[in-house]
Amino acid sequence: MTQLDYYEILEVSRSCSDAELKKAYRKLAMEYHPDRNQGNKEAEEKFKTINEAYQILSDSEKRAIYDRYGKDALNSRMGGGGSRGGAGFDDIFEQMFKSAFGENYGSSKKNGNQKYNLDFEVQINLKFNEAVFGTEKTLTNRYKVPCDDCYGTGAKDAQMSTCDYCNGQGQILMRQGFMQFAQTCPKCHGEGQIIKEKCPSCGGKGFNEKEQTVTIKIPAGVDNDNRLRVAGYGNESKDGTRGDLYVRFKVQEDEHFVRDGDDIYIEVPIFFTQAVLGDTIEIASLHGKLELDLKIGTKDKEQFVFNNEGCVNIRTGKKGRLIAQIKIVYPKKLTDEQKTLLHELQKTFGIESMAKESGGMDDVLNRVKGWFK
Known about the structure:
alpha+beta; 4-stranded mixed beta sheet; elongated
């Protein structure tokens, strides 16, 4: 099962501030509010998803849990119905405090600490068309599992000894002026115990690695740095539950199309006579050919917009625009006959007589000379 995370839904970065989060939520909530989209079931579902995402991310405690454990931790552990590993709400906060004050803060279950994060991220490179139209990718990667021989402790025969630096507390108390604060023990790294002898199977790491293959369905419209969560394909904990695999995308550039969000740009070269005379030409689009009507006197870099011919928005399902930008091409060489014809054409427009009547550049040159007298 794959799904975009809450940050993707609200179109914000994971490091966004509360103000940025609120601004993004208000914008999207206004756009998809049921009163403005009556009868639109898709907009109604989108509105519910936006509210769900904001409800979690606007709460600092829930956001911290979500960032560390993912959506499943909120659904199961905070919902009172148990979790994948049987932990409750208190276990979540116990883990949060461990990060701040040492691995054994407020807990006697010292052997239950993970030596690695259950969630991890990998990167997938996509071709331009794969990102635009969606695709399926089979990914082979390695994930961590607790070492069977040492039960994930990293110690031979799981034999640990109490840390003599913190006396098994996992933290040491530091005093600065009149203030006292706890710091993770630098010797046992908060575990309260140290390895007497490294496990020969895992070299003291407490885990080994296994290879897995997972097929990921990538939706149309993903872009650079979008993330997709693949639930249950992360690292394995000591109780056998799995974290989540996060896939981050890097999209290659295309030779002809340039993407800007949901809009697609393409440069259309035309000969200078087509710009002067006007013409109807065929141009390439994401889905085939389109007709472009060039009016008489088309300018260089002039843009023609085709609505709903761009990339689909991964969140709204709406398509962006195709923007065709003109590039006027002039001949690099002319034959004598071509030069003669162009001179004759120039005369028919009265260019020479216009220059004589207006004085051409003579008046300007004389005025400029006067600046230096």
